[in-house]
Specification:
Helix content is 63%, strand content 16%. It has five helices and 13 strands.
C-alpha cells in the first residue's frame, strides 16, 4: 500500500513544480485548450456525418451488388432455358429435315415409276390405257378396265398432291423452326452479353464498395485519433486546473505564513511540534520484523498512543486529501507549502475537510485503528520535493 501512497504523493509533488512558475495565465491556457477541444468536437461531428454518409453509400452499394447478383442469376437461368430450347429446336429441325427427305424420296419414287411406265410403253410397245380398254373382248371387261385405270390414276394423283402438300407444310415448319432458332440464338447472345456487362459492373461496384469501406475505416481511425487528442487536451486541462489549484494553494499558504508571521516549513527543520503524544514503535526506513522475519521499508514513523487521543497539525497549510488507503486506513494529506507535505494515517473522527486552511497545533482528527492490525496508532510521514523524509529529523527532540 506504500506504492499507492507514493503514487498519490508523486502526483501532488511533481505537479507542484508548476506552482512555482509564478505568473502563469491559467485562464488563458484554459480558454485555448477549451477552444481546441471545441474545434476537435466540431471536426469529430463533421467526421461522424461523413461516416453516416459512407454507411448510407455502403448500404446502397451492397444493395446494388445484391441486385446485380440476382440479375446475373436470373439471366444465367434464362440462358440455360434458351440453350435447352435451342437443343429442342435443333432436334425438331433435324426431324423435319428427315421427314422432308423421306417424302422427297417417296415423291421421287412415284415420279420414277411414272417415267418407267412411259419408258416401258415406248420401248416395249405396250398398250396404252385406251388400247387396253378398246382391246377388251367384252363390254363388261372394258368397263372394269376403265374403272380400274381411273382408280389407279386418282390414287397416284392424290398421293402426289398429298406428298407435295406435306412437303410444303414440312418446309414451312422447318422455316419457322429456323426463324425461332435464329431468334433463340440472338436472344442467348444478348443475354450472354448482358451477363458480361453485369459481371463487369459488379466488379466496379465491388471496387466502389471497397473504397467506401476503406474511407469509412480511415474516417473511423481519424476520429479515434481526434478523440485521443481530446482526451489528451482534457488531461492537459485537468493538469492546468490542478496547477492552478496548487498555485492558489501555495499563495494561500504564503499569505497565511505572512499573516501569522511563521517561518517556512524548510526553515523549521528540527523545531516542528509532534503530531501526537506517545512513543515511536516503528522508525523511518528499513525495519526488521522479528515475528515475520522480514525487512520492510517504512516511509514514516508509527506513534503508539491512547485510542482517541488528539492528532494535531505540525504546521499551517491546506488540506488536499482525505481518503481511505488499504493498509493505512483513513488518511489526511496536508500541503504545507514550498513543496512539503505531511501525511497522517489510521485516523478516526476527522475534524477538518478538503481545501480547509489549518494552523500548527489544530486538531485535525483522533488516533484510531483504521487500517491497522496492531491497535490504535498514528502513522506519520513528511515529504519534501518528492522525497520521503525522516520525520524524527524534523520534529523537536523529546
Amino acid at each position: 500500500m506504500k506504492f499507492l501512497l507514493k503514487i498519490l504523493f508523486l502526483g501532488l509533488i511533481l505537479s507542484s513544480a508548476f506552482s512555482q512558475t509564478s505568473k502563469r495565465d491559467y485562464q488563458d491556457e484554459l480558454r485555448n485548450q477549451n477552444k481546441a477541444i471545441n474545434s476537435l468536437n466540431d471536426e469529430i461531428h463533421r467526421l461522424r456525418g461523413k461516416i453516416d454518409k459512407a454507411e448510407t453509400q455502403e448500404l446502397s452499394a451492397v444493395k446494388k451488388i445484391l441486385n446485380l447478383d440476382e440479375e446475373i442469376s436470373i439471366t444465367e437461368k434464362l440462358i440455360k432455358a434458351l440453350k435447352r430450347e435451342e437443343e429442342n429446336t435443333r432436334g425438331r429441325i433435324s426431324r423435319l429435315k428427315e421427314n422432308i427427305r423421306k417424302n422427297e424420296d417417296e415423291l421421287d419414287f412415284l415420279r420414277e415409276r411414272y417415267e418407267l411406265r412411259i419408258v416401258n410403253t415406248y420401248q416395249k410397245g405396250q398398250l396404252t390405257d385406251l388400247e387396253k380398254v378398246l382391246s377388251s373382248t367384252t363390254w363388261r371387261q372394258a368397263m372394269y378396265r376403265t374403272h380400274y385405270l381411273k382408280i389407279i390414276s386418282e390414287i397416284e394423283q392424290n398421293m402426289t398432291k398429298k406428298i407435295e402438300k406435306l412437303l410444303i407444310e414440312i418446309s414451312q415448319q422447318k422455316l419457322e423452326m429456323e426463324v425461332s432458332l435464329r431468334n433463340n440464338l440472338n436472344l442467348k447472345r444478348e443475354k450472354e452479353k448482358n451477363i458480361k456487362s453485369y459481371r463487369k459492373l459488379r466488379i466496379s461496384r465491388e471496387k466502389e464498395l471497397h473504397k467506401i469501406r476503406s474511407n469509412k475505416k480511415s474516417l473511423a481511425n481519424y476520429i479515434d485519433e481526434k478523440e485521443a487528442g481530446i482526451q489528451q487536451l482534457e488531461s492537459i486541462i485537468k493538469k492546468v486546473l490542478e496547477d492552478k489549484a496548487r498555485f492558489e494553494r501555495e499563495e494561500r499558504i504564503r499569505q497565511q505564513q505572512q499573516a501569522l508571521k511563521t517561518k517556512s516549513f524548510k526553515s523549521l527543520k528540527g523545531n516542528l511540534p509532534w503530531p501526537a503524544n506517545g512513543r515511536i514503535i516503528a522508525k523511518f526506513g528499513r525495519q526488521w520484523n522479528p515475528k515475520l522475519k522480514t525487512t520492510t521499508d517504512n516511509p514514516g514513523i508509527d506513534i503508539k498512543g491512547q485510542p482517541g487521543s488528539e492528532i494535531r497539525s505540525i504546521m499551517n497549510g491546506v488540506v488536499t486529501t482525505i481518503t481511505y488507503l488499504r493498509g493505512y486506513g483513513t488518511t489526511i494529506i496536508v500541503d504545507n507549502g514550498g513543496g512539503f507535505y505531511t501525511v497522517f494515517s489510521h485516523l478516526t473522527n476527522i475534524q477538518t475537510h478538503i481545501d480547509s486552511e489549518i494552523r500548527a497545533g489544530d486538531v485535525i482528527a483522533y488516533m484510531g485503528d483504521s487500517g491497522s492490525i496492531n491497535g490504535a496508532k498514528l502513522h506519520f510521514e513528511i515529504w519534501g520535493k518528492g522525497q520521503k523524509l525522516d520525520p524524527e529529523k524534523w520534529l523537536m527532540k523529546k
